[in-house]
Amino acid sequence: MPYGPSTDGSDFNIDNLVTMIKAVSQDRHHLLTQYLRFHIAQLRKTSVDQIPIDRNFQELGIDSLKMMNVVVAIEQDFQFSLHPLDIFDNPTIEALAQYLADEIQSDETASEPVAAQVPAPSIAAWGTKVQTPTQKIPGIVFLLSSPRSGSTLLRVMLAGHSKLFSPPELHLLPFATMRQRHEKMHGTGLDEGLARAFMELHGWDTDTALAHVENLIANDASPQSVYAELQKAAGQRLIVDKSPSYGASLDTLRNAETLFEGSRYIHLIRHPYATIDSIVKRRLDKLVGVHDVNPYVFAEQLWASSNDNIQRFLADIEPERKKVIRFEDLVAAPNTTMESLCSFLGISFEKDLLRPYEGERMTNGLHGQSLSIGDTHFLQHKDIDPALGEVWKKKELWRHLGPAARKTAAQLGYELPGQDNQPDTLGAMTEGRL
Ligand code: A3P
């Protein structure tokens, strides 16, 4: 079956093309070019040969919303997570096809990690120590974790409780002002959770909510005032802020105690093998604009330093204001885990906590077809899946964890099969790189 361009698209077999892209590495750039042309042609309701490869997606009439269709297709066909920054950096079919070809190639040939040549920019750099406000505001619930620890699942479970307001990631705590937040996060897509929260609280449409956030940026509002506004709109409900960026910086975490009085902290932990594997698989390094660090090095350090920072921060918090939840317990015994979490939060247990896929829980994105912020694969499951608490037992990391990650794993009580008595081949490389 031919895969080349046609005038009417009739001889274009996309399934064959996908199979060939996976199988043939030499011609992959060309094949991916055809693949992208096919999808853009579908969106424009025209034939493949009408689609130039050197024009900007915007010029082709493909805005970021339409582009989501291509992102979803790539995810389904190649299990490859393309992030907004990838498209921003590669804004034509030609460039994006080359980028995809290189990335798929490097996934296949990954063997030994390569040390970073230059210090990596990262979400740790977002952390800004905020000034002490004239007054603290009432505490909320912070759900702290390394990324890919099952935080979306827990966030959505909590969203089912009548006494809680648990929106997608707010990412407010690292910043001194809304303008600074905008400068650091713009283009990552990670800043959408705040607008989504306003939509839910006020019953606004997307444009109204986005205009409100624009206004907060224009007025350079302080994150504390934004939290206060959310609290007012949430009424009696306690706000849950689950934003996995917070663990990357101790300054960020400490801002919680500077701005709030008596917040409670949930530390969600997950086995490093499963978490590191997920960070790599979902390409989180690219999501936050890190290109010069081996993905495994990045993932290991993100897991270790997030959990380490959270532990250090919580060391100074009174016992009644903090609680550790193991992802493995959450999915194996959700009932018991949520009951103990409710008693920690001082709220009664409600059955809807155990039905994360029922009712409206802010699991869609800002726009109808766009993916929700957080775990973009959350909706591919239909229920709490206990098997995901066991995957770490089957993961064979092809290298050995460095001393920082081993120490953190030991502190969290995670055994590390396959690591004992092994030389630490990469430990030195993973220190201080995040
Ligand atoms: P993977 O999809 O890579 O396995 P986070 O929300 O912190 O980013 O974590 C994402 C992880 O949560 C997923 O990583 C998956 O393991 C787990 N997860 C998502 N939905 C789940 C469900 N319904 N049941 C159990 N685990 C789930």
Briefly say what this structure is.
The protein contains 18 helices and 7 strands.
Describe this structure in words.
Helix 1 packs antiparallel against helix 2 (28-44) and helix 8 (192-202) packs across helix 9. By secondary structure, this protein is an alpha/beta fold. The model is unreliable at 1-9, 111-121 and 423-434 (pLDDT under 50). It contains 18 helices and seven strands. The chain has helices spanning 14-23, 28-44, 64-78, 84-89, 93-109, 151-158, 178-185, 192-202, 206-218, 223-234, 250-259, 272-281, 284-287, 295-315, 327-332, 334-345, 403-412, 427-430; strands at residues 137-138, 141-145, 164-165, 238-242, 260-261, 264-269, 322-326. The strands form two sheets. It has a five-stranded parallel sheet with strand order 3-4-2-6-7, with helices on both faces. A two-stranded parallel ribbon has the order 1-5. Bound molecules: adenosine-3'-5'-diphosphate.
Topology at a glance:
Elements: H1 14-23, H2 28-44, H3 64-78, H4 84-89, H5 93-109, E1 137-138, E2 141-145, H6 151-158, E3 164-165, H7 178-185, H8 192-202, H9 206-218, H10 223-234, E4 238-242, H11 250-259, E5 260-261, E6 264-269, H12 272-281, H13 284-287, H14 295-315, E7 322-326, H15 327-332, H16 334-345, H17 403-412, H18 427-430
Parallel strand pairs: 1-5, 2-4, 2-6, 3-4, 6-7
Helix pairs in contact: 1-2, 2-3, 2-5, 8-9, 12-14, 14-17
